[in-house]
Design goal:
Mean pLDDT: 89
Number of strands: 5
Structural class: alpha+beta
Distance between the termini: 27 Å
Low-confidence stretches: none
Length: 131
């Protein structure tokens, strides 16, 4: 869990070894996240335990950050640490249907791997239009 109150959310973390190093990273810290609508106050120790030094500049995190791209840095710092993300993409609404009833903002792929960038992307429309 990423908090200990009403706004708790979850994450998953893994240290993975790619078939060949990525930008000098022999292992990657990969995080799936559903961030709280407020601050992240828990989870950092678990990420550090699983990923070790990979958090420094070999991190990737994807999921619902609940903030636009410019708000990700603080959440990243609280959960993952290491170098500032050099990549946050996309920066557009991807959540939640129906927008008039649910509050949600942005899903992002975020990385602090040097040189990482988006080549292409597509945000799909809502797939389930009935509750």
């Amino acid at each position: 869990c990423l908090r200990d109150d009403w706004d708790t959310r979850a994450m998953a973390v893994a240290r993975v070894v790619p078939p060949s190093p990525v930008q000098g990273c022999s292992s990657l810290c990969v995080v799936a996240i559903h961030a709280p609508h407020s601050r992240i106050t828990a989870g950092h120790e678990e990420v550090a335990r699983v990923c070790g030094d990979a958090v420094q500049q070999c991190g990737l995190a994807m999921g619902d950050w609940n903030v636009p791209a410019e708000g990700v840095q603080g959440l990243w710092s609280s959960l993952i640490g290491g170098a500032t993300p050099s990549f946050v993409h996309p920066n557009e609404r991807t959540c939640c249907f129906p927008e008039g009833q649910h509050h949600g903002v942005y899903d992002h792929l975020v990385s602090n791997i040097p040189g990482s960038q988006a080549v292409d992307y597509k945000v799909l429309p809502y797939q389930i239009l009935e509750e």
